[in-house]
Write a structure and sequence with these properties.
Distance between the termini: 68 Å
Shape: globular
Radius of gyration: 23 Å
Bound molecules: adenosine-5'-diphosphate
Oligomer: single chain
Structural class: alpha/beta
Length: about 500
Amino acid sequence: PLAALDDASLLKTQSLINGEWVAGGARFAVHDPATGALLAEVANLGAADTEAAIAAANAAWPAWRSKPAKERAAILMRWHSLLIKHTEDLARIMTAEQGKPLAEARGEVAYGASFIDWFAEEGKRVYGETIPTTDNNKRYIAIKQAMGVCAAITPWNFPIAMITRKVAPALAAGCTVIIKPAEQTPLSALAVAELAQRAGMPAGVLNVLTGDGEQSIAIGKALCESDVVRHLSFTGSTEVGRILMRQCAPTIKKLSLELGGNAPFIVFDDADLDSAVEGAMASKYRNAGQTCVCANRLYVQEGVYDAFVTKLAAKVAGLKLGNGFEPGVNLGPLIDAQALAKVESHVADALAKGARLVAGGKPAEGQGGGQFYEPTLLADVTSEMLCAREETFGPVAPVFRFQTETEVIALANDTEFGLASYFYSRDIGRIFRVGEALEYGMVGVNTGLISTAEVPFGGVKQSGLGREGSRHGIEDYVELKYLCLGDI
Ligand code: ADP
């Protein structure tokens, strides 16, 4: 699929350190999850290259932070325009290595780019404060300054947006960055880095280190242990988040963590059922269920339970599973064999414990060499089942039954996670009660789609630390400094 790019020079297989493309000594393979085909062999870097990238980012920092925010914004805006201009090629690269349908990949390019222009603007508004004095001989001022060299470790499910959501605020604030993209999707990261180069990003300001699973651990360790790196931003599993947090403890690094979720999706008796079904489809099956805000548990009140399951089943039957490059396909493959195995184990566990299979329920046949799983709907699911506790990260909708508002709030909050949640109701009192009672960083009310650059994205409990996007998203990349002026 990559032979058809309009601009073949967007296909980079080397890492970017200090403005130079670096081949490294070894390479690792990147595969198409829809076919299993080899797409490219990419530079497999390690700890020594990480030290070089840290040194380059540190050397580039003084000049970058000294530029007026408006000059940094101009480079970011050129970068943004280039992403938009090359949408088609970026989408092709993304579908090839990640598997999502081409239309979704195009959507992600736009979403990913939107963080760049948002933060290019926000960077101009990093205001400080003057504080009313309590001593006539003194004046108090607080200013905000770029934190320094920042590291970003990103996942494969949104190969561009998870990078720009971290890197754009860091760069806009005057920090320099080192990106370690997921080993499954380095090509999208490198294409975006190539466009940053074309936009005029100075050498060392934006660096990308690629590595396979094993080398990613070594690169991550070097980034965490460095006392030059001041901030680490990570999106991925809670398990890896804990490892990184531990590794960052000795250097007391600032952390932004966007970790796992276990999103409840609640449908009350008074909901608009068609709208709830539509929201469930978007929240559950987008990216084949592989987003951290995907509905993981669908709780439906008993009065509308059967009607909801029937309507959802009809929509699920309309999904077209296949290679993301084929027209009309709206459900792609899972990222790898491990992801497929997890989905299979969750479905097997639910069926063994008494769930009712309404649709799907097995890996799809006749789809070439990729990891495809049928869009699946399970009814009569209970809290004892694995899918109630763990994030399935696949196209499986487990539907639970509940009776009362109090009961469902307790069920929804009974998890160590707290990222996204959703509920459907037309009762204004209930909307406030439930919206306030859900222990989540984000609540979608009568919608299954909540993400956009302008709003604060993030979780509570073991779903993470900090917020990305919105005017708050740049705060993680600046330090507040207090200046006390005496002898006035
Ligand atoms: P997922 O479960 O979504 O694949 P992971 O948390 O395993 O998420 O991976 C997300 C990112 O973290 C990837 O870039 C991966 O290479 C990186 N990663 C995984 N394990 C480690 C580790 N021990 N140290 C540093 N980075 C890691």
